Amino acid sequence: MTVEQGIEAVDQFPVGMRVLAVDDDHTCLRILETLLHRCQYHVTTTDKAQTALELSRENKNKFDLVISDVDMPDMDGFKLLELVGLEMDLPVIKLSSHSDPKYVMKGVKHGACDYLLKPVRIEELKNIWQHVVRKSKFKKMKSVVTNGESEGNSDQNGVRANRKRKDPLEEEDEEEEEQQERGNEKKPRVIWTREMHNKFLAAVDHVGIKNAVPKKILELMDVDNLTRDNVASHLQKFRLALKKITNEAKQQVNMAAANSHFMQMSSLKGLGGFHHHSPIPLGSSQFHGGAATTRHYPSNRTFAGMFPHVSSSLPRNLHNDGGYMLQGTPFPPLENLHINSNNKAFPSFASQQSSLLVAPSLVLEGHQQSSSPSYSPHLEINKRLEDWSNNIPQSNVHSEPDALGWNMFGNSTNQTYFCRDTDFGSSSAAHADSLQMKQQHENIFSPMTVAQLLRSSSANEGLFMGQQKLEDGFMASDAGSLDDIVNSMMTQEQSSRVLGRRLA
DNA sequence: CTAATAATAT
DNA sequence: AATATTATTA
Domain ends where: A135, A163, A183? Predict the structure, then answer.
């Protein structure tokens, strides 16, 4: 695929994307419709949540995305979100004038893939197609994994790993030939799907890493047919992964510290830090020409996918917690994330693949790369962060954006969160043009939406984002490092697989 | 073959 | 419950 084609492809895509817009306020709805039209989407509107639900039920594949107000008289907007998101597996974007984190959190918890604040600007709407791309990309991956074994349906001798409650979206062959009855020599192996792992994480999250024991985790996860031993095993692996990451992170910090004095010398030759390994095996855009993702961690994929965040464009501060370094706030970051009696603590978006919404080319590539081999992102980023945090007003939660368009989102003892309300930042260059390099560069500093920010802290998926002011003893890792470890495994290998039981 | 990963043993 | 070992898989 040539670059031009690639760009054209992504450029063309959003045109005609079918959007269902829901808002009880007619004025808002009109405006929304107009704006969506202007983005060249195909728009269907309704002022009733109930109608929206019916519409989407009747035409299962008639919409690509739903964008809906949260407060509506006839139905709880969150209910709608949940129903649509789960039943139809459509990306749902929430719309609200409430910037209260609680609302946002709620939206995210219920599976919103984004949360836009009213009044919505067209720039934001221009970008919503990315949610669709993201979602479908994930789906495709899933189906490849499941249908991949075209030769001799290897399923026949395998028992489905039906340990998770069925995801409404993957109810295909429901033929349960419970062949449990027979001798049952070997225990089926558990395949840890992304979903299960997310639950696992949420559970660990909830009780805190130090109290995380298999039994408790198992209870919290509430997955059928999963045994305590299964969890124990996974926990073991998880801890190992954590330790490994921590150690490498420490090395990073040392290196960073050492380097910071010599920043001008971009060399680093011989240190093995900034050379690139194998190029990202996808297409052949010009991004591969220069530096591939800089890896600061070994390129082996051990433990990949163990950790929830994906993007690493911005620094993460690691926080030492009894031998393990945890990211940002200690594991259970937001007090909002509770596991309630309905087990809704594991929002539906757990089934989405996490991925930073970035400019199209990057969506497709899945990686960002630095613009030059000697480029050292984290140092610059840290510097900028410091600048930002120094300029952030200290009291109000929702302040005016600073010059860079960032708001302070929250502030706790030693950290400050930043975000921008609703913009995807540079990714608003949704229609990629010839400015990729610049774009790329901006992407590194690209701000998050509120929803993205929250999600990042929810341990369920997504972006690690809360940005702390850098302090001694904290560290930041830079783009393309943890990322590599995190991103590669879970998604491809374990999305929805069959659990094999050999029949001789 | 090896590495990864889950099961099982301690 | 934590860790070490083994078995199975890709």
Answer: A135
